[in-house]
Amino acid sequence: MAVTYSAVRVSNPRQMKDFFKLPFLVYRDDRSWVAPIIEEVRRTLDRKRNPYFANADLELFVCYRDGAIASRAAIIINKLHQEKFSRRSAFFGFFESIDDTEAAARLFAQAERTCAGRGVELLEGPFNPNHYSELGLQVSHFGAPPSFFQPYNPDYYPRLLAAAGFRRSAVFQTMKNENIRDYVQKRYGSVRESPSLDGYTVRSLDLKNLDNELERIREVNNDAFSDNWHFLPLSREEYLFSAKFLQFVTRPELIKIAEHRGRPVGVLHCVLDINPLLKKMRGKMNPLGALRFLSGRRKIKSLIIFSVGIKKEYRHTRAYQLLLRAFCQTIQKYEALETTWLSDENSAVMASAERLGLVPDRQFAIYEKYIPADAGKGGSC
Cβ distance 332 to 186 under 8 Å? Predict the structure, then answer.
């Protein structure tokens, strides 16, 4: 009996429910998978709540095989990204699928018809849903438990994308030092608190003044990363939205702010690897789970460098030296250190990673596909 497929744009509660249900079907036998908190995914994809969508459009797609959910993806069209990079492009993200090339191909064919109807010429991803969220498809170390903020997927996903006409356009990696405390002590000795030098100081995040602190961090990052690949400056509303659960994933001493005569010029931001705790929650947040999370968080000894940014005019000043020194003092309380994604092409970042004894760990890829202009015939806009 022939298998039937139906790919559609999400337009009713049943399809939305299937969109969120699919990962739990794909990974039901995978002991390494860490389920995302479902309500947080909903918040991220809520056009009304997420300020990112003030300048971006979102469409969700699902594909059914014989009436059962088989694949899903989100399509994001960001007007500001198109203007800055002069490309009629769109992102795809939140991709999940059973091991069925036809289900993935039908899903993307439907999404591409909608994109072509909007004048989109290039589809790239995964971005979940943008450049400062989880991004990339895992292409190495399959089956090993992911760290916090790392994508995770089965080994057949690259094959599904290739069969749907996508090609790799960029490859990133994470780096890791599983014995960071001993490494720092051997290389740098016993590091003490950083002194003030030539008007430069380094301090930890001040939770009592959190909104203003977040604004200082946003100011530094928007300047520091302005020339980075795919970077768009974050609005105040976007940054506050993304930082809603900041206090759950980090500690004040893990965010170092470098200042010059009272002005913020650099930020080193680390988060805790909370994935072992999230795994126990199985995608749901409830009062008892929250209490267990907070209790377990105190015992975490693994860190992730989320970002390091120094304003352009301060990159060759004492700001970097003092940030590194302050970080080395803090890191001696922990056992392991990892990074989020890094590019081999960024020699300065790679050199900094090597100073901390970090070595390559996992690889993640971005994929792209050019959409024929006639792909929009018969599709919806």
Answer: no
In a domain, 344, yes or no: no
Is residue 345 a part of any domain in this protein? Answer: no
Q: Chain centroid to CA 376: how far?
A: 30
If you average pLDDT over residues 298-304, what whole number do you get?
A: 97
Same domain membership, residue 228 and residue 80 = no
DSSP 57-113: EEEEEEEEETTEEEEEEEEEEEHHHHHHHT--EEEEEEEEE-S-HHHHHHHHHHHHH
pLDDT at 190: 72
* Separation CA 161–CA 33 (nearest Å): 20
Return the C-alpha torsion angle 61, 67, 70, 74, nearest 10. 10
Give the domain CATH number at 149. Answer: 3.40.630.30
SS (H, E, C) 303-330: EEEEEEEECHHHCCCHHHHHHHHHHHHH
Listed residue (206, 310, 195, 321) closest to 264, CA to CA: 310
| Shared-domain flag, residues 69 and 210 | no
Mean pLDDT of the chain: 94
CB atoms within 10 A of CB 22: 21
- Is the predicted pLDDT of residue 313 greater than 60, yes or no? yes
Domain count of the fold of the chain = 2
Cα 363 to its chain centre, rounded Å, is 14
CA 7 – CA 280 distance, rounded (Å): 33
Q: Which domain holds residue 309?
A: 179-334
Q: What pLDDT sits at residue 193? A: 61
Q: What is the mean pLDDT of residues 202-217?
A: 96
> Within this chain, do residues 139 and 12 fall inside the same structural domain, yes or no?
yes
Whole-structure pTM over 0.85, yes or no? yes
DSSP conformation class of 214: H
Q: What is the pLDDT of residue 75?
A: 98
Looking at the DSSP bridge assignments, the partners of residue 203 are: 257
pLDDT of residue 378 exceeding 60, the answer is no
CB of 15 closer than 8 Å to CB of 8: yes
Place of tokens 């909608």: 114
